[in-house]
C-alpha cells in the first residue's frame, strides 16, 4: 500500500505530494517522533489523532484510521534523514513549519521531554528547513496550546 509513496518520497527529485500522500508522510513523521524514546504512549497517540483531526478536518474515527495508516507507513519508511529530506522537498514550507509545531505537541504530550525526542527534533527541524529559532517558537506555541 505504501510502497509507491515511499518510492516517490525517496526519488532523487520528488514531486510535490498529493494531499492524501502528504497526510500520510507528515503523520508518519509525527509517529516517528512519538516512538523516538522507545515508548509510544496512549497520550501521544491521542495527541496525534487530535493534530490530524484538526489539520485535516477529520472526525475522531477518521483521524484514528489515518494515524493507524501513518503508524504502518512510519514502520516501513527509510531512515529519518532520508525520510525527512524527502518530505522537505515534497511539502511546502508553511506545511513544514506547521509540522514542527505539531511534532513539538507530540513530544510534550506525555508531560516529559526525553533526550531521544529532543535529539530527533534538533535533527528534524533543520532537515525540514526550519531554523532553530523558528523551532523554538513552535515549541513555545505548542506548549502554550497544551496548557490552555
TrEMBL record:
Residues 23-140 form the Co-chaperone DjlA N-terminal domain. SUPFAM superfamilies: TerB-like. It comes from the Bacteria. This is Tellurite resistance protein B-like protein. It comes from Limimaricola variabilis. The lineage of its organism: Bacteria, Pseudomonadati, Pseudomonadota, Alphaproteobacteria, Rhodobacterales.
Amino acid at each position: 500500500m505504501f510502497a509507491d509513496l515511499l518510492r516517490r518520497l525517496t526519488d532523487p527529485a520528488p514531486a510535490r505530494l498529493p494531499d492524501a500522500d502528504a497526510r500520510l508522510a507528515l503523520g508518519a513523521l509525527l509517529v516517528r517522533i512519538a516512538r523516538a524514546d522507545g515508548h509510544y504512549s496512549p497520550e501521544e497517540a491521542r495527541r496525534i489523532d487530535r493534530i490530524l483531526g484538526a489539520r485535516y478536518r477529520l472526525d475522531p474515527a477518521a483521524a484514528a484510521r489515518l494515524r493507524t495508516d501513518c503508524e504502518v507507513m512510519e514502520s516501513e519508511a527509510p531512515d529519518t534523514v532520508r525520510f525527512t529530506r524527502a518530505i522537505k522537498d515534497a511539502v511546502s514550507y508553511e506545511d513544514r513549519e506547521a509540522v514542527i509545531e505539531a511534532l513539538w505537541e507530540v513530544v510534550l504530550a506525555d508531560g516529559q521531554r526525553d533526550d531521544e525526542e529532543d535529539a530527533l527534533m534538533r535533527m528534524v527541524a533543520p532537515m525540514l528547513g526550519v531554523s532553530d529559532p523558528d523551532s523554538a517558537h513552535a515549541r513555545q506555541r505548542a506548549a502554550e496550546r497544551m496548557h490552555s
